Amino acid sequence: MGLFSSSTQTIPTSGEVPNHIAVIMDGNGRWARKRFLPRVAGHKRGVETVRDLVKQCAKLNVKFLTLFAFSSENWRRPDDEVSFLMGLFMDALKREVAKLHENNIRLVLIGDRSRFNDELVKQIKASEELTAKNTGLTLTIAANYGGRWDILQATNRMITENPSKTGPFTEEDLAPHLAMCYAPEPDLFIRTGGEKRISNFLLWQLAYTEFYFTDTLWPDFDEEAFQAAITSYQQRERRFGRTSEQLTNA
Ligand code: IPE
Ligand code: IPE
Ligand code: MG
Q1: What residues line ligand 2, using a CB cutoff of 6 Å?
Q2: Ligand 2 atom with minimal separation from the 73 CA
Q3: Which end of the chain is more exposed for a tag (fewer CB within 10 A), N or C?
Q4: Domain 20-236 homologous superfamily, CATH
């Protein structure tokens, strides 16, 4: 096993502040439509929310923040929206990476890069390399990411990298090949925009994560809304399969 243990193999310790927060940033299109603006205006505004949230997480000493920016199913959207999103991603990387680096933030991208254009792939690689040794917050952007894609690519790599090994395989065999093997499992999952589903986000890693859903649309998800999510998390009892009595007697 790598750096981090699995919640189903060992009971994790958790503190007041979540160590890893994973977010589905949803509701940009509806935010824009409410204002009679094109959907893409909501995406543009959503980038500002990302900037603020990164700051707040760094201040709170959250170690890992993972943001779902584009799902493997989002290619089904109209072509012009998809290309706007790709352009926005490229611009945001170019514009923000120096500041991330200044703030000791490590940037990592998870997802299938094979459908991105060469320029974007190069920009992603350069941004990751520049910030690779930073020791503050790890900001992971999930782009062209799907939970099923992740489990399958990990399985395939596990097999091709050890061709002589046959099953039965264990969690320890698979886990190092998952896209986010460098991070512990998320403590808190937040979805804005009112939908109550995972939409093929981190299927493996959310096994024991606390879920928080809010109707607030992503561009409106401000410091107060984030604090409400943290407060809700702090009121949860994380049992990992045990009874409440076992926790209080421990
Ligand atoms: C989330 O906002 C951003 C992406 C999926 C890229 P949406 O674009 O899904 O906004 P709604 O859900 O249509 O309001
Ligand atoms: C999930 O949002 C993906 C991202 C936020 C990137 P969607 O808006 O695509 O999810 P569905 O289609 O409503 O499930
Ligand atoms: Mg949506």
Answers
A1: 24-26, 68-71, 74, 195, 197, 199
A2: 9
A3: C
A4: Decaprenyl diphosphate synthase-like (3.40.1180.10)
